[in-house]
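S2.1 Query sequence (NAD(P)-dependent dehydrogenase, short-chain alcohol dehydrogenase family)
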Amino acid sequence: MKKFANNTIIVTGAGSGLGRASALQLAREGAALALVDLDASALEDSRAQILEAAPAAELLLIVADVADENSAKNYVARTVERFGRIDGFFNNAGIEGKQAVTEDYDCQMFHKVIDINLNGVFYGMKHVLQVMKKQGFGAIVNTASVGGIRGIGNQSGYAASKHGVVGLTRNSGVEYGQYGITINAIAPGAIMTPMVEGSLKQIGGDNWEAVGAEFVSVNPMKRFGKPEEVANLVSFLLSSEATFINAAVIPIDGGQSYKY
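Output structure tokens follow.
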């Protein structure tokens, strides 16, 4: 019996990075998936990769803007309509924004990052929790960041949004544990995803790989993490193996957040 047989899991930001890697892992482990992303073509690419790895996977693709509450309400409703339940929710969609010190940080960019990374996480939780509370079970994993548990510099919007995700996770975990629902957050560090690559290119341009090498040189493990390593943690937290882990924020960063 596969770990997520007969389970339905929503994954936001499923078109790339941690969302795609986690969706692949969850599908291999038997989950039926609602894949949510703003980029329709990226969702189709994820579908193709998932079906290659898990040909029997049941997939529902939903193009949605997580920063819009009605879109969040809709992707939850469509998931329930299709599958009848929501066992797990990887509340993952997010953006980095631009690199700038606080005094130079663009206000419109700040609001955009908050809308997607923080408001989007809240909207998803709000509507998924209504379903899970009625069911009397469920597991939610929010994507925070090491930037949500310490300062990282030059990313006011991102750091503020991820600190907010940490607060939402801890607060809601306290509220909903009594209903058989666990709510946790992961705090990835430098994981080599398209978003991290984009960040390095903002800093280093054509020399971004050298910037990346310098960046990981201070990590205790001297390397970038892999999306698949994060997917393993997400899978564990969404599973029946983690039913007494609640309101936790778990770094997955090679030890970097403990070094500084």
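The beta strands are 8-12, 32-37, 59-63, 88-91, 138-143, 181-188, 249-252. DSSP finds nine helices and seven strands in the chain.
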